[in-house]
């Protein structure tokens, strides 16, 4: 039928604050645009939420902005407020009928990204302190797709559709399948692509997710994918790379021993026989790291509400703190562009922007025109000739396994009108990197210019 874009089998997916924000040099008193922050809505596609948690109380919150088009359809025994302004659930595989979180993961993620500041929290006396999200004035919309045993592709796609139509600003997604799929049949890639088309950035874990070690996420270049680090910057998770020449994950954020809100219906360990019930829990994994990036992206959005998803992601990547690879020479392929530094991300100087057609051309390079573009509802087909290679997608990172590779990038000046940027190269002895031109001079705000980067090294090794 003409109305059918593509058909593929449904499969099963599983889910993947405190000290951590201070560790990333993002104190509670950081510069804020509170009027705009209260209009930012983060959509959480996850295990639901525990609405009674103090992290989601709406004291001091006014009614949401008129731009919000969502609804509170949280089902049985679920009430929204002026903090949790939207709730939906998708239950094609179960008879349950509530957006209430019985697992804990969705509650933990939401409070890490956008929870209120709560004084004196702890887990049985451990990690005492103040639990808070990156954007405590932001609103929350919940899309529960996970039930006992997992969730289905059809529910995930429905949740993406609703979140987009509800007009959320950022989508948080922490679910993964047993193995990565190609873009054209992966609902995460498809859903996040449609979100990108509507100006919505999707933030997701890059690798294994929390207590579900076999789940992975497709690392599409239009998504923000995040790896986890410890407080002392040690890496804990394996990275699974997706299709294409783009280097992933994008960035690293703290994901170990994170104290955040929890559903009292699930024990803190999740082990049968554990009868404890807690309001806050300490857990680790990429599912704990990526909500830090989600919150940081929402923070950037409050200062630059009209920026594209690619521009927001570029800000986070180019302002990341460099990480020491002397203890782990291969570390750069695990930690992306560096460690998240939210406070710096609102003023990066230069941005690497990209839009829908840029990603479509990259997809055309990667496969058959009809199959690749079937993931969109696009009438376009791939051209016979491409102006640039797939590796020239305007992305802040570059990757190649060839002996010699040239990359072209376009940067936009969002710093001072009269600005000069000088290229610096830090490289090991195996690869030689040159940048041309070495100096970029700008005379106006939003002026664009190109540069070329060339890498030369041993064939068969991958460089980033």
Automatic annotation (TrEMBL):
PROSITE patterns: SUBTILASE, SUBTILASE_SER. It holds the Pfam family fn3_6. Keywords: Hydrolase, Protease, Serine protease, Signal. GO terms for molecular function: serine-type endopeptidase activity. The keyword Lipid biosynthesis does not apply. Residues 38-336 form the Peptidase S8/S53 domain. Signal peptide: none annotated. Transmembrane segments: none annotated. GO terms for biological process: proteolysis. Residues 392-452 form the Subtilisin-like protease fibronectin type-III domain. Belongs to the peptidase S8 family. This is Cucumisin. The lineage of its organism: Eukaryota, Viridiplantae, Streptophyta, Embryophyta, Tracheophyta.
């Amino acid at each position: 039928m003409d109305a059918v874009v593509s058909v593929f089998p449904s499969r099963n997916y599983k889910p993947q604050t405190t000290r951590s924000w201070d560790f990333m040099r993002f104190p509670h008193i950081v510069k804020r645009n509170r009027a705009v922050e209260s209009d930012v809505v983060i959509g959480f596609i996850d295990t639901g939420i525990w609405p009674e948690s103090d992290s989601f109380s709406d004291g001091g919150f006014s009614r949401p902005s008129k731009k919000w088009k969502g609804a509170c359809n949280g089902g049985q025994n679920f009430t929204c407020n002026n903090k949790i302004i939207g709730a939906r659930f998708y239950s094609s595989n179960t008879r349950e009928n509530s957006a209430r979180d019985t697992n804990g993961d969705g509650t933990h993620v939401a409070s890490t990204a956008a929870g209120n500041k709560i004084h004196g929290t702890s887990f049985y006396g451990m990690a005492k302190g103040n639990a808070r999200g990156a954007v405590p004035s932001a609103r929350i919309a919940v899309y529960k797709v996970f039930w006992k045993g997992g969730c289905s592709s059809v529910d995930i796609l429905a949740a993406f559709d609703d979140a987009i139509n509800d007009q959320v600003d950022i989508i948080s997604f922490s679910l993964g399948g047993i193995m990565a799929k190609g873009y054209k049949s992966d609902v995460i890639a498809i859903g996040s692509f449609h979100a990108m088309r509507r100006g919505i950035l999707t933030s997701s874990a890059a690798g294994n997710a929390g207590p579900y070690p076999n789940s992975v996420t497709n690392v599409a270049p239009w998504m923000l994918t995040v790896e986890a680090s410890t407080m002392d910057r040690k890496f804990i998770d394996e990275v699974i790379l997706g299709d294409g020449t783009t280097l992933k994950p994008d960035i690293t954020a703290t994901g170990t021993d994170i104290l955040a809100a929890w559903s009292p219906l699930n024990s803190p360990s999740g082990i049968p026989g554990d009868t404890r019930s807690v309001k806050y829990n300490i857990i680790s994994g990429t599912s704990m790291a990526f909500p830090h990036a989600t919150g940081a992206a929402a923070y950037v959005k409050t200062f630059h509400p009209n920026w594209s998803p690619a521009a927001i992601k570029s800000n986070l990547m180019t302002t990341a703190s460099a990480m020491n690879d002397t203890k782990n020479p291969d570390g750069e392929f695990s930690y992306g562009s560096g460690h998240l530094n939210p406070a710096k991300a609102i003023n990066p100087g230069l941005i690497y922007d990209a839009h829908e057609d840029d990603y479509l051309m990259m997809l055309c390079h990667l496969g058959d025109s009809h199959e690749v573009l079937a993931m969109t509802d696009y009438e376009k087909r791939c051209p016979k000739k491409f102006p640039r290679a797939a590796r020239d997608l305007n992305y802040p990172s570059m990757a190649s396994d060839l002996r010699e590779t040239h990359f072209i990038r376009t940067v936009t000046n969002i710093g001072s009108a009269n600005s000069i940027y000088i290229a610096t190269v830090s490289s090991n002895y195996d690869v030689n990197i040159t940048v041309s031109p070495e100096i970029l001079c700008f005379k106006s705000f939003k002026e664009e210019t190109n540069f070329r980067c060339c890498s030369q090294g041993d064939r068969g090794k991958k460089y980033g």
